[in-house]
From TrEMBL, chain A:
Residue ranges of coiled coil: none
Main location: membrane
EC number: 2.4.99.28
Protein name from the UniProt record: Probable peptidoglycan glycosyltransferase FtsW
One BP annotation, GO: regulation of cell shape
GO MF terms, alphabetically ordered: lipid-linked peptidoglycan transporter activity; peptidoglycan glycosyltransferase activity
Protein family membership: Belongs to the SEDS family. FtsW subfamily.
Enzyme class: transferase
Keywords of this entry: Cell cycle, Cell division, Cell inner membrane, Cell membrane, Cell shape, Cell wall biogenesis/degradation, Glycosyltransferase, Membrane, Peptidoglycan synthesis, Transferase, Transmembrane, Transmembrane helix
UniProtKB/TrEMBL annotation, chain B:
Official protein name in the record: Peptidoglycan D,D-transpeptidase FtsI
One Pfam assignment: Transpeptidase
Active site positions, chain numbering: S295 (acyl-ester intermediate)
Entry keyword set: Carboxypeptidase, Cell cycle, Cell division, Cell inner membrane, Cell membrane, Cell shape, Cell wall biogenesis/degradation, Hydrolase, Membrane, Peptidoglycan synthesis, Protease, Septation, Transferase, Transmembrane, Transmembrane helix
Gene that produces this protein: ftsI
Location relative to the cell: Cell inner membrane; Membrane
Main location: membrane
Coiled coil: none
Reaction it catalyzes: Preferential cleavage: (Ac)2-L-Lys-D-Ala-|-D-Ala. Also transpeptidation of peptidyl-alanyl moieties that are N-acyl substituents of D-alanine
InterPro entries: Beta-lactam/transpept, Beta-lactam/transpept-like, FtsI_transpept, PBP_dimer, PBP_dimer_sf, PCN-bd_Tpept
Length: 382, 574
């Protein structure tokens, strides 16, 4: 660890668009956690800023984590991708062990660490993405050439997804698969093979949904929430009302009514609805734009890294930036009723320590890739 | 530099563009959806939100007070707080329920059961009309889902003395009986409205700009003089108790205007404690009970006879104690022999009155009663006031004409009887009775001339004789004032015919006799202890009430001779 931290940062300027956008999203997130949680915080903790303070502390922890990650060279990560795979799978197994895993609302997703609980799937997914990026770098030729080269990492992914579905955490496994698929696709996996796998994946998702009444219920209520606005469609209609009330300019920060014990999960999964109510269509468009900037800069950074021959950093940057924007878009789509409800947070914004700290680490990795490739570019130019 | 640069492989660029393109599609569909929701569906969604958020709260209006003619309060509204709850929210804090129940004076188990029963409701009254102090004790517990609502509670400072007249409101501040019912529209205000935004737990979090001020109701002034009302009630209550009677009524009116000064009846009830109310106490008997007036009808018949010009005060009626009319034997207590009108009244001679009535004929007597307002409402406007019972004269035979002449075979309300005597007391003018003064009063038809002023004056003179020491109502006399009046001792009728042992004791009179200021009717129904005559049961009540009333109203004494005599013998009988 000490050795890692002593490594110096490449002395080049980071991508100001990416860094600025991430800081903006995170700041907006902290403000919205404070604003959207006043009613629920007052009810649960008797202090309307309870969640705001906690999220601010998580933010500091996240900055520290990000600072550490920023000092770790890509090579170090690349050397330890198998360790990462092991660590990720281990986390997903541990959380399922009775007595260690901690269950909330019927989902066993947390590992109890005394004062805080760790949501296992958050670091586990990051570990697995690191592994996939490493694999794609190592076995690029096989990946592009054969079924075997594609299926080897897929096996581990399926195991990880299976473990996550046992919790159950459907959203997390879906995002992991999608991000892994994007990395493998961009690393040159054969399109035909990927399409076949995606078809198989789609079929198994359909089977999963059919087999579980609560997922089926969500799917049905999502397609017509106004059929049962006080039962199965309750959460979604409340979310849509919040978004609609925002109109063009929003009701103003702090003025949301829907957050006052109407819409559940305002500070976590449905943060966007309250944001859209308070900031209106202008706010919605700004947020969509901000996440778009992240993926745009992420891909620029990844492309530059690959140009510089830093394949691992490039693949990783593709995956991580895709992850942020994919999860952000899916969350917004769920809030707006375009996709059925999943337990997915709005990255960097929703309340939750594990998610925020993991996202900070993720961003630090992106910036590290950016710094290394820029430094290499400058080297070449010299 | 790096190890992997050795492969120097560059994946095809188009793949990255495909992924970016997919994200672009995703992003654009989000933009489209956001525009859709926040522009096109905004009206629908905001309306759906308003349906959930906005509540119209009623702001209760203060109900007008009822006051007596001197402005003394008879009914007042005081602000109270009602405690209501969102049952689900209260059940969410089970540790608070016991303390809440205690502060409301309820059984915790019963409260919890009730909350559970109405769990799906958003509104449940827990306790209504608490004093502001008690209500704030309840709120100090800070139980979630418990709220206050301002309501007004009606208080009746004059209590049982005027309970049936003023009446009651229900818990929703609506008049249920008496003046409260009759003048509900005038007394009740128009509630205001307040539109508020509620949070999901039912608390008002913000006021919208729409606010309609409540319009308070108007105060209503009665013609009643509460000093006379207390006086009348106290005395009739005492008389009913003393004589073990069924009930009693006193009506006092100002004959010069038709204004009712007091309307008391016993039994009554305490309007401030509704748990004690019994139906018998609720009736305003002066307006809602009918009775045969008995001998008190004789001055009405004789007035008509005088007014017709067929008789004058020197006319002599020959009697011998009884006479036969068809199947009916009309009897007097004694054989009074030849009688003039003064004697008929003084001795309350049935025979004399019947002979006069028969000479006027059915139509004459009936018309006379009509002239004095029998068979029609008095105009008081009191809810449930009765017309009395007065059959058409063409159904009357001689027997009925004879009995009607001394007050049987028809029925009047106490108000009607008092009103008729009001005409004798004031130049023969039959006036509508009034209960309301000033704004809010009904339009009344002009006074009708029942008899000529001269006849009225003559009749007052004759009725003074009744109160003279040798009259049937000597005990109605009051110190310092001339009194005119007539007793009545009516046998009570039931479905089996007339009771031999149940009577109604009446006295109706006026003072000062020369220029009457007050007409007072006293009815004591079914006295069972001691005497039962109008002259011995009702007349003394009249005397006590009127003696005080004259003082209260600052009426100058007109009979100094009697003043001295009575000063030494205030309760002198005759």
């Amino acid at each position: 660890m000490k050795r890692l931290l002593s490594a110096r940062l490449p002395s080049v300027a980071p991508d100001i668009w990416l860094l600025g956008t991430l800081v903006l999203i995170a700041t907006l997130g902290l403000v919205m956690v404070g604003s959207s949680s006043v009613a629920v915080a007052d009810k649960l903790a008797g202090d309307s800023l309870y969640f705001f303070y906690r999220q601010a502390v998580y933010g500091v922890v996240g900055l520290v984590a990000g600072f550490i990650v920023l000092h770790v060279p890509m090579q170090a990560w690349q050397r330890h991708t198998f360790t990462m795979l092991g660590l990720g799978l281990a986390l997903l197994v541990i959380v399922l062990v009775p007595g260690i895993g901690h269950s909330v609302n019927g989902a066993q997703r947390w590992i109890d660490l005394g004062p805080v609980a760790l949501q296992a799937s958050e670091p586990a997914r990051l570990c697995l993405i690191l592994y996939i990026a490493g694999y794609a770098t190592r076995r690029q030729t096989e990946l592009a050439a054969s079924w075997a080269g594609l299926l080897r990492p897929i096996v581990f992914l399926v195991v990880a997804c299976f473990l996550m579905l046992l919790e159950p955490d459907f959203g997390a496994s879906a995002v992991l698969l999608a991000v892994a698929g994007i990395i493998l696709f961009l690393a040159g996996a054969r399109l035909f093979n990927l399409v076949v796998l995606a078809g198989l994946g789609g079929a198994s998702v359909a089977a999963l949904v059919m087999s579980s009444p609560y997922r089926m219920q969500r799917l049905i209520s999502f397609s017509d929430p106004w059929a049962h606005p006080f039962a199965s469609g309750f959460q979604l209609t409340q979310s849509l009302i919040a978004i609609g009330r925002g109109h063009v300019f929003g009701v103003g920060l702090g003025n949301s009514v829907q957050k006052l014990s109407y819409l559940p999960e305002t500070h976590t999964d449905f943060l966007f609805a309250i944001y859209a109510e308070e900031f209106g269509l202008i706010g919605s468009l700004v947020l969509i734009a901000l996440f778009s900037i992240v993926v745009w800069r992420g891909f620029v950074i990844a492309g530059r890294a690959i140009e510089q021959g830093q394949l691992f950093g490039g693949f990783l940057a593709y995956g991580l930036s895709a992850w942020v924007v994919l999860q952000g878009f899916v969350n917004m789509a769920v809030n707006m009723g375009l996709l059925p409800t999943k337990g997915l947070t709005l990255p960097l914004m929703s309340y939750g320590g594990s998610s925020l700290v993991m996202m900070c680490a993720l961003c630090a990795l992106l910036i590290r890739v950016n710094l290394e490739s820029t430094a290499a570019q400058r080297e070449v130019a010299r | 530099m790096s190890e992997d640069t050795t492969t120097n492989f560059t994946p095809p660029r188009w793949r990255a563009w495909v992924i970016l393109g997919l994200f672009a599609v995703f992003g654009i569909s989000l933009v489209v959806r956001a525009v859709d929701l926040q522009i096109y569906d905004e009206a629908f969604l905001t309306h759906q939100g308003d349906m959930r958020h906005i509540r119209t709260l009623e702001v209760p209006a203060n109900r007008g007070a009822i006051v007596d003619r001197n402005g003394r309060p008879l009914a007042l509204s005081a602000p109270t707080e009602s405690v209501w709850a969102v049952p689900g929210a209260v059940l969410g804090a089970p540790d608070k329920i016991a303390a809440l129940a205690k502060s409301l004076g309820m059984d915790p188990a019963a409260l919890e059961k009730r909350l559970a029963q109405y769990k799906s409701r958003q509104f449940l009254y827990l306790k209504r009309q608490l004093s502001p102090f008690d209500a704030h004790q309840v709120m100090a517990l800070e139980t979630p889902g418990v709220f206050l609502q301002r309501e007004y509670k009606r208080y009746y400072p004059a209590g049982e003395a005027i309970a049936q007249l003023v009446g009651l409101t229900n818990i929703d501040d609506q008049g249920q009986s008496g003046i409260e019912l009759a003048r509900n529209g005038y007394l009740e205000g128009e509630p205001g409205e307040r539109k508020v935004i509620k949070d999901g737990r039912g608390r008002a979090v913000d006021d919208l700009d729409e606010y309609k001020m409540p319009k308070p109701g108007q105060d209503l002034k009665l013609t009643i003089d509460s000093r006379l009302q207390y006086l009348a009630y106290r005395n009739i209550k005492q008389a009913v108790i003393d004589h073990k009677a069924k009930d009693g009524v006193v009506v006092m009116l100002d004959p010069r205007s038709g204004e009712l000064l007091a309307m008391a009846s016993y039994p009554s009830f305490n309007p401030n404690d509704r748990s004690s109310i019994e139906p018998a106490g609720m009736r305003m008997r002066a307006a809602t009970d009918v009775m045969e007036p008995g001998s008190t009808a004789k001055p009405i018949v004789l007035s008509g006879a005088l007014n017709s010009g067929l008789y004058d005060t020197s006319s002599i009626i020959h009697t011998r104690g009884w006479f036969q009319v068809g199947r009916l034997t009309v009897k007097d207590e004694l054989n009074y022999g030849d009688e003039d009108f003064a004697k008929i009244l003084k001795k309350s001679s049935n025979v004399g009155a019947a002979r006069v009535g028969l000479s006027m004929g059915p139509r004459g007597v009936w018309q006379d009663f009509r002239n004095f307002g029998f068979g029609e409402t008095t105009g008081s406007g009191f809810p449930g006031e009765r017309f009395g019972v007065l059959k058409d004269f063409f159904t009357w035979d001689k027997v009925e004409t004879a009995t009607a002449s001394y007050g049987y075979g028809f029925a009047v309300t106490p108000l009607q009887l008092a009103r008729a005597y009001g005409a004798i007391a004031s130049e023969g003018k039959l006036r509508s009775l009034r209960l309301i003064l000033g704004k809010g009063a009904d339009m009344h038809p002009p006074a009708q001339q029942a008899i000529s002023p001269g006849t009225a004056k003559t009749m007052r003179g004759l009725l003074e004789g009744v109160v003279a020491p040798d009259g049937t109502a000597s005990r109605a006399a009051i110190a310092g004032y001339s009194v005119a009046g007539k007793t009545g001792t009516a046998r009570k009728i039931s479905s089996d015919g007339y009771h031999m042992d149940q009577h109604r004791a009446l006295f109706v009179g006026m003072a000062p006799a020369k220029n009457p200021r007050v007409v007072t009717l006293v009815v004591v129904d079914a006295p069972t202890r001691g005497s039962y005559y109008g002259g011995t049961v009702a007349a003394p009540v009249f005397s006590k009430i009127m003696a005080s009333a004259m003082r209260i109203l600052h009426v100058p004494p007109d009979n100094p001779k009697m003043l001295t005599a009575a000063a030494y013998h205030p309760n002198r009988g005759g």
